[in-house]
Design a protein that fits this description.
The radius of gyration is 25 Å and the shape is elongated. Strands 9, 10, 11, 12, 13, 14, 15, 16 and 17 form a nine-stranded mixed beta sheet that branches. By secondary structure, the protein is of the alpha/beta class. The relative contact order is 0.09. Strand 11 and strand 12 form a beta hairpin. The N and C termini lie far apart (about 65 Å). It contains 17 helices and 17 strands.
């Protein structure tokens, strides 16, 4: 009999939600019996296991095997919460380790459907050390360049959240699920319940999307297509030029908790029309576009509210967008968009896009996370640069601005996959340069890049405000200056 808790799917129902008619082939590890009443001789443990098995029809708290989600083969593992609260014992660890090994052997992704209360106390430290087994298995899969997607169900707490759940590359959550390291019976009595919910974890940047159950199969399918595994992929093409008012922001902005997949019809408004990465080009789609004559004009055009922003470029570039949300350290930056996307031809590209605001430490950490994940999976990266600079307030300093920027520089420097950069607005000093690809940066006609904002440069040089324009000229920050200096490869538009 299945668990009768209202709204709580069984392990097999959760699998069927993803596989549908494609079906699922169950696997089992080699038999490894426990001693009577388990490793601790806990009185009544065998009887409790027997009741759990009779109630759920399962032999343990995890079911695993192979299946197809959409058009992608994968290993699926699913927790049965009705079996002793989905807790992890030694035999659970056997199944989890076998599931990761199966994915490794077959070189296919692993999708985990998690619903667990944590380690099984009746097995004591033997149960707790299963977390180490899971972590080691996950690391081996990661080192092999194979993706891991977790769907956290209600509830997902304790060590299961801290390994199988939060340890995945992408974390999706079902609405209203209880999610957190501390279970409901071990929290402070005055703890805010929102912090332990799927929506609260999304707000804190620990969950990438909260996805309704009826949208889950599509979302996971898109993620598996984007994450791979893939063969060698070419560099991300440079986005096509956009004119003012084209591709208005908001056509698929994914800032809400339900933004698991953002899709649009690609009608040829520019997706795929940019030059190939690494090919210098000055061609664009607006014959009237012209280069700025002065540094002051370049800055003014980059700051013009009417020019296209990151949302417009991303909507034009991708047929499907799959946001990665948050820095996994408790913070988010709404001014920086990260994720993976599928182009009209199905090719995946990871993206990091600044939205014209000062980028906060959480944004840089999210960017570094995205770039490293793409690099490990062999997916090319596109960065869109548009910021007056890194956030410089006291809170940003306390949040580790310097370390976060340094980590982003390091992520791009270490990337083995090609990184393509398009500067679409302001290129404000190191806060912008951290996301620029050395040797493969391109400019739009309404952008600039500078070691410092001309106003600040004039102030440092103790020049009057009237000399800001002349200072901008001296900085040689126009798109054509940057090509001449060898910083940029081409001008788009």
């Amino acid at each position: 009999m299945p668990d009768t808790t209202p709204g709580r799917a069984t392990a097999r129902e959760a699998i069927a939600l993803l596989t549908g008619a494609a079906g699922f082939t169950e696997h089992r590890p080699p038999p490894s019996p426990l001693p009577p009443d388990g490793p601790l001789g806990w009185a009544g443990y065998d009887a409790a296991r027997g009741r759990a098995s009779a109630r759920t029809g399962e032999e343990e708290s995890v079911v695993y095997g192979t299946g197809v989600v959409g058009d992608r083969a994968c290993v699926l593992l699913s927790f049965e919460f009705g079996f002793l609260g989905g807790s992890l014992g030694r035999q659970t660890g056997d199944r989890l380790a076998a599931a990761y090994q199966l994915a490794l052997t077959r070189r296919i992704p692993l999708v985990a459907l998690v619903a667990t209360g944590g380690s099984r106390m009746q097995e004591g430290m033997v149960a707790l050390t299963q977390l180490q087994r899971v972590a080691a298995a996950s690391v081996r899969l990661r080192a092999a360049g194979l993706p891991q997607v977790a769907v956290v169900r209600d509830p997902t707490t304790g060590g299961g959240w801290a390994t199988v759940g939060a340890g995945a590359d992408v974390v999706l959550a079902l609405p209203g699920a209880q999610v957190g390291f501390a279970g409901s019976r071990v929290r402070p009595p005055d703890a805010d319940p929102y912090a332990y919910s799927a929506e609260g974890q999304f707000a804190a940047g620990q969950v990438d999307a909260v996805v309704p159950a009826d949208e889950l199969a599509v979302a996971v399918t898109h993620w598996l297509r984007a994450l791979g595994p893939h063969g060698e992929l070419p560099a991300a093409p440079v986005p096509g030029a956009l004119s003012a008012g084209e591709g208005e922001p908001g056509a698929g902005a994914g800032t809400g908790a339900g933004a698991g997949t953002e899709a649009r019809a690609t009608t040829g408004s520019g997706a795929g029309t940019g030059s190939a990465a690494g090919t210098p080009s000055a061609a664009g789609r607006d014959p009237a576009a012209r280069l700025p004559e002065t540094g002051r004009e370049a800055v003014a055009r980059a700051r013009d509210a009417r020019r296209p922003r990151a949302e417009a470029y991303l909507a034009d570039y991708f047929a499907v967008r799959l946001p990665l949300h948050g820095d996994r350290s408790g913070s988010t930056d709404p001014g920086l968009l990260c994720g993976f996307g599928l182009r009209a031809d199905g090719r995946p590209v990871a993206y990091v896009a600044q939205c014209g605001t000062p980028t906060r430490p959480a944004g840089y950490r999210a960017a570094a996370r995205t770039i490293r994940l793409a690099d490990r999976l062999g997916v090319p990266v596109l960065t869109l640069v548009d910021t007056p600079g890194a956030a410089n307030d006291a809170e940003a300093e306390r949040a580790g601005a310097g370390a976060a920027i340094a980590d982003t520089f390091a992520a791009i420097a270490a990337a083995r996959v090609p990184v393509t950069t398009l500067v679409i607005g302001e290129g404000g000093s190191g806060g912008a340069l951290a996301l620029a690809a050395p040797g493969n940066t391109h400019m739009t006609v309404d952008s600039y890049f500078s070691v410092i904002a001309p106003e600040l440069a004039a102030a440092i040089l103790k020049r009057p405000l009237s000399e800001t324009g002349a200072t901008a000229d001296q900085l040689r920050l126009r798109p054509q200056d940057l090509v001449d200096l060898g910083f940029a490869r081409s001008i788009i538009g």
